[in-house]
Amino acid sequence: MPTRAPVIGWNLPPFYCPIESQVHPEAKELEEQAVDWLDASGIFRDGVDRAWSIATHSTDFSCRMIPRGDPRLVLLFIMWNHWAFALDDQAHDTGSASTLTRSVVDLNARIARCLESPGSGTLDGGPLGTALEELATLTRAALTSAQLHYVQEGLRDWLFGASWQVGAIESDVMPSLSDYVAMRPSINGTRFSLAWSLAANGIRMTQDELYSAPVQALTDVAGFVVSCDNDLFSYAKEDSQETTDRNIINILMHHNRCPPQQAVAETVAIRDRCMTLFLRLRERIAGTAGPELRRYLESLGDYIAGCIHWMNAAPRYASPRNRHALPQTGASWNITWRSGPVDARTDPLPIPATAWWWDQLAR
What we know:
Blueprint lengths: L14 E2 L10 H15 L5 H8 L3 H8 L5 H22 L8 H16 L10 H16 L2 H26 L6 H11 L2 H11 L6 H4 L2 H21 L1 H4 L9 H9 L3 H27 L4 H23 L1 H4 L18 E2 L16 H5 L4
């Protein structure tokens, strides 16, 4: 990568993830269909925007997260991801100091109601709004009532997290590590993505299973591990913004007054402690789980492992737009792997927001 290096460098530390990543067997066909929809949607402004939309590798993300799912619903999830990345770049994570929280909160409320209230017309007739109306119509037609509820709930959680993040940036206050940990799975859209995993995999858990404290804690842990990985992969994409991005690396640098490489090392240590917890808690839950819950536990592993492989080779992260006029074919972080955690301790992290995760091991 010959371009200007980010302060954390172009060589990320080895990743600890003893879970294999698989890809949906129809990924190629699904990508062709998704790009056809993308071209018809009009959500990009020109050929350059089109190239960067495809560079999100939304198909690879979706097909690694749901490698065994119903292709019809996986395709719909891919379309949603293309739309979500466009929203992120145009409204949520612009990097501009002029982005106002009140405007984002208003937009997010309208997006949520668009899916929940057919024909409400809460968005204007612009390309993003028109594409959202189409996605909402397709989603309501494709899902059962329960599946639709989970997707709506997941969408609200993601929009809630995005609103919080914009507010934190506008306030010009770097959040505490604990506050950030508490909010990061929402910012990342964890429950929105997993709602599609439930639907496309046809997993039919009872509400008591899905919303039990151990399963919700495990869901948060998975979302936080993916978020730490995302903060590492996306750092180069966001280091030239007008505003300082609220990611775990910048938060550790700010509060610990430490150099970037020390913050990266601390990030990996925190992340690996959580990865170890994920494996232990998942095994504990699986011991008494029925077949549907076991499938959900497997899908959480697909989420973590799939995201690492996806971000490693997605031009959005591997040849970011702030450094390249166009996505670079074959771009990759060329990550390496670690056979064990960099921090192998199993006791709880000294972060208040994580305490309840470890509490579930005693239930």
